């Protein structure tokens, strides 16, 4: 009986998470026409978002967990610098080549190690 209740509680948690997520998205779509995207609050939110992504990226490079922790820090920093160089070198379509560069370099290190 306890296992059956636990199974139902997992399904209820999943349904609750889905309803909560899609409810928030629906509210966003409903109010999107009334919001000025060039307002101060949206510029602040964009700045906070970029700062969080940058902080998480730096943390992943300098203080990794898991398998990335086995790669020496100088290789992680070198791969990051090469990926940034790829991004800077090409004026158009630069994100995918930079991501591929970093991924291929780290995978190559893992294979050769």
TrEMBL record:
The keyword Nuclease does not apply. The keyword Transmembrane applies. It comes from the Bacteria. The chain crosses the membrane at residues 12-32, 44-65, 71-88, 95-112. Keywords: Membrane, Transmembrane, Transmembrane helix. This is Branched-chain amino acid transport protein (AzlD). The lineage of its organism: Bacteria, Pseudomonadati, Pseudomonadota, Betaproteobacteria, Burkholderiales.
